[in-house]
Amino acid sequence: MDQAGRVKKSETGGRRRRLPSPALILSLVALFVALGGTATALKGKWSVKRDDIAPKAVGANQLGPRAVTNAKLRGNAVRSKQLADYAVGPWKLRLGTTAAALGESSTTSNVPVDLSGPTATVQIPAPGGMVAIQAEASMRATGNNSARVYLYEPSTIPNPVMIHRTDASSFQTRISTPGIGAGDGVTSRVRAGWIVMPVSPGTKTFQLRYSTTGGTAIFKDRILRVAVIR
Questions:
Q1: DSSP category for residue 12
Q2: Nearest C-alpha neighbor of 229 from the set 197, 189, 182
Q3: Cis peptide upstream of residue 127 (ω within 30 degrees of 0)
């Protein structure tokens, strides 16, 4: 350069670019550091600590499917205050169960016996709750006798209680109902209902049992529904 601020032509006739001054380079470095913060590369596996994560930085969108399992939760970590309304349905808590035994079975016993279910198990939370039960079965009896269906649960109903009865010689569907005459059940779904009773906390296994007054009683299409309602 022959004067400050002027660019001197090279011997080849081209123009020589001005190099940035040291002060400009230092200013740019300072700007990049300011914009980039003080992030430091983390070394290897398990190098991210709780102090490295900003509050609320990890949300549901950052968690993979099934990333949080039972083993990751400490005891009593998730309580009612941590659960949104309707977040956990009864199918998650075993508060409702429907069981079926569709095959045909028969008995000549005049005391209630097990004919392979159906059996429905629910979990009653402490300090106890109300359980609603509905059962149905297609049933018949031979020789002017009665086919009978009973409800049984070892701790709640240790002595089986009759909920269905029919004298029909051809298959008749009976459905449980509460109130007077509930021991026979009804044939109309419109008149059918739920049997509601208080139950102590714990795992409860309800079952249907069967008997006849004489001859042979035959049963099929048996269904048992049990739900914890509060």
A1: T
A2: 197
A3: yes
Q: pLDDT per residue over 154-182, tens digit each?
A: 999 999 999 999 999 999 999 999 875 57
Distance CA 139, CA 169 (A): 9
Nearest by Cα to 109 from 77, 72, 146:
146
CATH assignment of 90-228, given 3.30.1330.10, 2.40.30.110, 3.30.230.10, 2.60.120.40? Answer: 2.60.120.40
Q: In angstroms, what CA-CA distances link 47 with 67, 68, 148?
A: 19, 20, 68
Residues 127-150: tens digit of each pLDDT? 888 999 999 999 999 999 999 999
Distance CA 115, CA 107 (A): 8
End-to-end, the C-alpha distance of the chain in Å comes to 93
Measured between alpha carbons, how far is residue 120 from residues 101, 107, 154, 222 in Å? 11, 21, 12, 12
**β 172-175/129-141 pair status:** antiparallel
